[in-house]
Amino acid sequence: MPITFDVDGVGRYPRDVEAAVYFCALEALQNVTKYAEAAAITLRLRADDGHLTFEVTDDGRGFDRTADAYGTGLQGMADRLDAIGGRLDVRSAPGEGTTVTGRIRTRTLSAG
Q1: Would you say residue 66 has pLDDT above 80?
Q2: Residue 98 and residue 95: Cα distance in Å, rounded?
Q3: In whole angstroms, what is the distance from residue 81 CA to residue 62 CA?
Q4: Would the pLDDT of 109 be above 80?
Q5: Mind listing the pLDDT tens digit for each residue in 1-57?
Q6: 3-105 in CATH: which number?
Q7: pLDDT of residue 70
Q8: Which pLDDT belongs to residue 74?
C-alpha cells in the first residue's frame, strides 16, 4: 500500500515528544493496515506556532465514531499524548476513511 509523506518545518524535539509521535503514528499506521481496507495512506508532520502535529489519513472504509468507542490502541495513543500535554483527535465516517491527528505543544531543540 503506498504511503505519502508530507513533512513541513520539523526539527528535533525533546525525547518524550519524539517517542510519543513515533509510537502514536506507528499505531495509527498499524490500524490502517489491520482494519481500514485502504488503498493509500498519508502521513503528515507539521511544526507551527509552538506545536508539533502528526496526521495519518487513509482512504479506507472508515467507521461510525458515535457507535464505536476508542479501542485499546486509540485509547493508548490518547493516553500517551495526554501524558505530555498533547491531544488526539479521530475523524471518521463509514465509507469516508479515517484521519488520526495528534497535536503537542513543544519547543524545538534544533532545526530540521
Answers
A1: no
A2: 9
A3: 23
A4: no
A5: 899 999 999 999 999 999 999 999 999 999 999 999 999 999 999 999 899 999 999
A6: 3.30.565.10
A7: 66
A8: 92
Q: CA 64 from chain center: how many Å?
A: 18
Where in the chain are the domains? 3-105
What is the 3-state secondary structure of the chain?
CCEEEEEECCCECCHHHHHHHHHHHHHHHHHHHHHHCCCCEEEEEEEECCEEEEEEEECCCCCCCCCCCCCHHHHHHHHHHHCCCCEEEEEECCCCCEEEEEEEECCCCECC
Query: CA 83, CA 110: separation in Å to the nearest integer?
Result: 23
What is the rounded CA–CA span in Å between residue 42 and residue 96? Answer: 14
Q: What are phi and psi of 110, to 5 degrees?
A: -160, 155
Burial of 42 (0-12, 13-18, 19+ CB in 10 A): middle
What is the per-residue pLDDT for 69? 62
